[in-house]
Specification:
By secondary structure, the chain is α/β, with parallel strands linked by helices. About 50% of the residues lie in helices and about 5% in strands. α13 crosses α14 and α15 packs antiparallel against α16.
C-alpha cells in the first residue's frame, strides 16, 4: 500500500495507487473530508509522487531523489502549494484590493503573524500563469490548493478557466473540509475522493504502533474523534480540560432551564479567542451531543467513552430525538460558519436549544 506513513484511508490510497501505476491521471482532484483526517498530508505525498523522477514500482515517490527532497523542502519548481498567506504578505496585496480586506477571524500564522481568512484571486492568477508553462524538471507541474474551501468566489472563478481547459502537463489537487462551499462548476470538474475519520479503536492501535502508550493513544483517538492528524498534534491535557468545560456547560443547560442564565458564559467557552478555538469548540459540542444521541437511542459505542457516565446523564436529559436534532443544527451552522458574522450568536443558538429553547427549522 502506498504512503505507509499515513494512518487509515486504505480505500483512497488504493485508488491513488492504481492511478499512479496507470499513468492516466485526471487533471484535477478534490480531496474532501473533516479537518485533521490526513487529506492534506496525502495530497502532498501524492503531489511529490507526481514530480518524482525515480518513482517506486507502485508509482509513489521514492523519497530520496533530488526531486523528492526539493518537494519536501518546498523548493521544487514544478510543485506549488497555494494556501492562506500571512496578513502582511505583499504577494497577496499586490494588484488586488481584495487582499486588504479583513474577513473575520484569522488563525495563527507562521512567522508570528496571522493568516488571512481567504485565498485571494491574485494567488489563483499566479497559479494559472505557472500552469500555462511546461514543467522545468518533472514530467508535469502539480498544484495543491489547501484549504480550497477558503477561496473567495472571485478566486474560484479565476480557477475555472484552468479547470475547463487544463494544460496537458498540469495536475491540480484541491483540499477542502467543506466542499459544498466550492462552486458546483469547480466541484464538477474534479475527480473527487472522500476522506473519513477512523474508528477510534483502530486509530488507537495505529498510534500505539507508533510508540504512543496505549492509554494515551486511546485518549488521543477519542478526543480527536478518530482523526489521525488531530490525534497526533493534540495537546492532550488542554484538550481534555476544554472538553470538560464544554461538557459541564451542556450538562448545566440540559439539566435545568435556569442554566440559560449563564448562556453568555458558556458561549465564551466554545467561541474562544480565534477561529481555531471556535471550530474545535463546535467539534466538541457536536461529538458530545452525537454521543448523547447514540446513548439515548441505545446505538452502541461512543467516542467519549472515558466520560461515559456524564454522557449518559446528558442523554437522559435531552433524549435521542432532541439530541439528534441539535446535532443536525450544529452541523448546519458550522457548515455555514463563513456566512455568520456574529460567532457568539451562532453558539448561543445551539446552546439555547440544549437548554430547551426552540430549535430553528433546518433549511
Amino acid at each position: 500500500m502506498i504512503f505507509p506513513e499515513v494512518l487509515g484511508h486504505e480505500r483512497v490510497r488504493s485508488v491513488l495507487a492504481r492511478l499512479l501505476a496507470s499513468g492516466r491521471l485526471p487533471h484535477a482532484f478534490l480531496f474532501h473530508g473533516p479537518e485533521g483526517v490526513g487529506k492534506g498530508l496525502i495530497a502532498r505525498l501524492f503531489a511529490t509522487s507526481l514530480v518524482c523522477v525515480s518513482a517506486a514500482g507502485d508509482g509513489s515517490g521514492c523519497g530520496t531523489c533530488a526531486a523528492c527532497r526539493k518537494a519536501a523542502h518546498g523548493n521544487h519548481p514544478d510543485f506549488l502549494i497555494v494556501t492562506r498567506l500571512p496578513k502582511k504578505d505583499k504577494r497577496a496585496e499586490a494588484g488586488t484590493d481584495e487582499a486588504d480586506e479583513d474577513d473575520g477571524d484569522s488563525a495563527p500564522g507562521s512567522k508570528g503573524g496571522e493568516l488571512r481568512s481567504f485565498i485571494v484571486v491574485q494567488q489563483i492568477r499566479e497559479l494559472n500563469r505557472h500552469a500555462a508553462h511546461a514543467p522545468h524538471e518533472a514530467p508535469r507541474r502539480v498544484f495543491v490548493i489547501d484549504p480550497a474551501d477558503r477561496m473567495k468566489t472571485e478566486a474560484q472563478n479565476a480557477l475555472l478557466k484552468t479547470l475547463e481547459e487544463p494544460p496537458g502537463q498540469a495536475v491540480i489537487v484541491l483540499v477542502a473540509s467543506r466542499p459544498h462551499v466550492l462552486l458546483p462548476t469547480v466541484r464538477s470538474r474534479c475527480f473527487q475522493l472522500g476522506f473519513g475519520a477512523m474508528a477510534p479503536d483502530a486509530l488507537a492501535v495505529g498510534l500505539t504502533a507508533r510508540g504512543i502508550p496505549p492509554q494515551e493513544a486511546r485518549a488521543r483517538a477519542g478526543l480527536a474523534e478518530g482523526r489521525p492528524g488531530r490525534a497526533i498534534a493534540l495537546d492532550l491535557p488542554a484538550a481534555a480540560e476544554r472538553r470538560d468545560l464544554v461538557l459541564s456547560a451542556l450538562e448545566a443547560l440540559a439539566a435545568s432551564p435556569r442554566g440559560a442564565a449563564e448562556l453568555a458564559v458558556f458561549s465564551d467557552r466554545i467561541v474562544g479567542e480565534n477561529e481555531t478555538d471556535l471550530l474545535e469548540g463546535l467539534d466538541l459540542v457536536t461529538a458530545l451531543l452525537r454521543d448523547a444521541a447514540r446513548v439515548a437511542s441505545g446505538r452502541g459505542a461512543i467516542l467519549n467513552n472515558d466520560v461515559a457516565p456524564r454522557v449518559e446523564t446528558l442523554a437522559r436529559a435531552l433524549g435521542a430525538e432532541r439530541a439528534t436534532t441539535i446535532v443536525a443544527l450544529t452541523d448546519r451552522l458550522r457548515a455555514d460558519l463563513r456566512l455568520n458574522i456574529n460567532k457568539a450568536l451562532l453558539v448561543e443558538t445551539i446552546l439555547a436549544a440544549v437548554a430547551g429553547g426552540p430549535i430553528p427549522a433546518l433549511a
